[in-house]
Write a structure and sequence with these properties.
Strand order of the largest sheet: 4-5-3-6
Number of helices: 9
Shape: globular
Largest sheet: 4 strands, antiparallel
Helix content: 25-40%
Number of strands: 9
Structural class: alpha+beta
Strand content: 15-25%
Length: 293
């Protein structure tokens, strides 16, 4: 469901004859261009772990007395939403998206056991968003994940207006004034395969820069390094893989500093990765920096 650009339909639906419960399908061809540039500002009301996981939330639906009605509503809303997105009907899009968000939380509140996932600041944000939309006519709406955080959706053409609204009225309701900015994506891209990272020359600031000083560096593109997946392993490539494993071990030894990295996934990937470079090691040209990049 997360690998297609712009939009995907997940689950069998009358909205598409090719849809399936087994896999998602791309649906960007059915979307009006205005939705291809939509923004998603994620307003962090709380960064704490959710009180109920998505998996547990799905299980709660099995005994929910409103489950069957909900399933029918979801099917109807998907068909209506796809039509609205095809026609570029933002008003209908907003109505359906917000109904879906609130229905999700209503179901959680009526499950056994029940959960109230929204926080007071969540409700205040919703009220402010609706008031702002009514006063200005700016097509901005909200949706919710299975937690207290707000996803603010709006077209790219309204970015300046909405950014000001967020800064003036919503950011103060976020935990530590923290939010994330996202937008509709173009699909997955290879972030390292065949992508080279240049050597660099420090004009000044060597070493002092890691002690809080400044430095000035320029790229040296004639010397590069890149990660890739070798088909045939040579002794040189195996040695480069060992260098990467040494880096991974160092990162793992500093959990307080590098805990934000998925080091388990990194170690799993190391079996197939090699680093190819023509940057001379030990000459101050940034061979290690190219590897980290």
């Amino acid at each position: 469901r997360s690998v297609f650009p712009t939009l995907a339909i997940w689950g069998a639906s009358m909205a598409s004859t090719e849809s399936s419960d087994l896999f998602a399908i791309p649906a960007s061809a059915e979307v009006n261009p205005i939705f291809e540039s939509f923004h998603d500002d994620i307003l962090i009301v709380s960064s704490k772990e959710k009180s109920v996981s998505s998996t547990a939330g799905h299980q709660l639906m099995e005994d929910n007395r409103f489950a069957e009605v909900r399933y029918r509503q979801a099917e109807q809303n998907l068909e209506a939403l796809m039509l609205a997105m095809k026609l570029g009907d933002i008003d209908q899009f907003i109505e359906i998206v917000e109904e879906e968000a609130l229905t999700l939380h209503a179901l959680m509140m009526t499950s056994k056991p029940s959960f109230i996932l929204m926080h007071p600041n969540t409700l205040e944000m919703i009220n402010r968003i609706r008031a702002y939309r009514a006063e200005t006519g700016v097509p901005v709406c909200f949706t919710l994940d299975a937690g207290p955080n707000i996803h603010l959706l709006y077209p790219h053409s309204e970015e300046k207006k909405v950014s000001k609204f967020v800064k003036d009225q919503l950011l103060e309701l976020c935990e530590d004034n923290f939010m994330l900015r996202d937008k509709v994506g173009k699909g997955p891209v290879k972030i390292f395969m065949n992508k080279s990272f240049p050597a660099r020359v420090l004009l000044f600031g060597e070493y002092a820069v890691i002690k809080g000083s400044q430095a000035l560096a320029i790229p040296f593109p004639k010397r590069t390094g890149k990660l890739f997946l070798p088909e045939n392993w040579t002794d040189e490539l195996r040695q480069s893989n060992q260098y990467i494993q040494d880096l991974a071990k160092y990162l793992s030894s500093k959990p307080d500093t590098f805990g934000f990295l998925d080091l388990v996934k990194l170690e799993q990937d190391l079996d197939s990765l090699a680093f190819e470079t023509n940057i001379p090691i030990g000459y101050g040209l940034g061979s290690s920096g190219a590897l980290v990049s």
